[in-house]
Amino acid sequence: MIHDIVFIEALKVDTVIGVYDWEKTIEQTLQFDIEMRTDIKAAAQIDDLSKTVDYSVVAEDVVKLAKQNQAELIETVAEKVAELILADYQVSSVKITLRKLGAVPNTAGVGVIIERTKPLY
């Protein structure tokens, strides 16, 4: 079992998201915490970025997906981000904490946490 995690913390994306008509006319801030389980041993041994997950590239992909998605639910966005990461990167699993900041008064944020594992073939 792999215990190494490459992570992205507090990635903020302003995008149109929401169920209500008024939400579809404004941008709201989503905040992602992403944990990607992968084996970093080879990268560490030879000090080579190509042998691990490039969190900068993952962050760019997440921002692009979140801005283009136009979903109503953050659940949809979280699921699509998980699918993207599992399909495009050498990870065995991903955990995504997705917050919608400012959506509910008197909270720091509301959101979902999902964990997905790459299917074994």
Question: Can you walk through the features of this model?
Answer:
This protein has 121 residues and is an alpha+beta fold. The protein has three helices and four strands; from the N terminus they run ββαααββ. The protein has a four-stranded antiparallel beta sheet, with helices on one face. The longest helix has 15 residues. The radius of gyration is 15 Å and the shape is elongated. The chain starts with a strand and ends with a strand. The model has no long low-confidence stretch (mean pLDDT 94).
Keywords:
four-stranded antiparallel beta sheet; 4 strands; elongated; single chain; alpha+beta
Total number of beta strands? 4
Largest sheet: 4 strands, antiparallel
The N- and C-terminal alpha carbons lie at a distance of 17 Å
State which percent range the strand residues make up.
25-35%
> Shape, please?
elongated
The number of distinct helices, counting runs of at least 4 residues, comes to 3
- CA-atom Rg in angstroms: 15 Å
Structural class call reads alpha+beta
Helix content: 25-40%
Order of helices and strands: EEHHHEE
Averaged pLDDT, please?
94
Biggest sheet: strands side by side, in what order?
1-2-3-4
Uncertain spans: none
Oligomeric state, counting identical vs distinct chains: single chain
